Amino acid sequence: MAACLLAVSIAIGACGSEDTDLVAGKEAFLEGCASCHTMERAGSQSQIGPNLDAAFQRALIDGFGREGIQGAVHEQILNPAKVPPDSPAYMPPEIFTGQKARNVAAYVAFAVANAGEDQGLLAEAGRSDAEPGTGEFVFLEGGEGGAQSCGQCHTLEAAGTSATIGPELDSYLQGASEEELRTAITDPESELAAGFEGGIMPADYGESLSEEELDMLIEYLLEAGGGAGDGG
Question: Are residues 111 and 31 in the same domain?
Fold first, then answer.
């Protein structure tokens, strides 16, 4: 993928010269891209689409500038690879346009394969108001250990999320029991929701979340989705 993107960037590298807002770019990335792409600095871990760190690491080692990467990403946002619309990896064209597309491209170019953590306002970008130590925080932020956020892939009205990579939880959770949710979170391949393919939801929540965080998440989902909560 990186080779294709670099090929088009020569003609559009001027994108990097435009005024951009990295904070707004990160917020938009987390809203619209993190559910499909891994980029460590942004805290996204999804493997549905290309791993952006890996895609551009070689180019950076070879001396390809981040301005060129910005142009390549901008072009990919406007004209993504042609993938069947029913594929989990499908990316709609122009998912962002105008200034928002330029902001996202600028943030990706800054963050990709860039070790360390964002600082200042950039570190706060995209964070929810959920209180640490709550199930809502685990759902929206992935807990203290940085697990992938549930809200990046699922719609849940109580949490204010609207992603459609995974099942819509307000319906899915109706009548669900604690045991069923625990299995669905820690062993997602055991029973797939109708219309969804395997290999998308991380299978390591049993390790990436502490036992306490897992319990808080399940309790939160039962309350938010109206599940049975009877443990059986």
Answer: yes
Q: What is the pTM of this model?
A: 0.73
Q: 133 to each of 142, 149, 202, 225, how far by Cα in Å?
A: 11, 15, 22, 20
> In this structure, which amino acid lies at residue 8?
V
DSSP collapsed to 3 states, 154-178: CEEHHHCEECCCCCCHHHHCCCCCH
Residue 217 vs residue 162, higher pLDDT: 217
Range of weakest confidence among 47-61, 137-151, 217-231 = 217-231
Domain extent for 152: 135-225
Report the DSSP beta bridge partners of residue 45. 38
Closest CA to 165 of 27, 36, 38: 36
| Residues 119 and 172 reside in one and the same domain | no
Q: What's the total number of domains in the chain?
A: 2
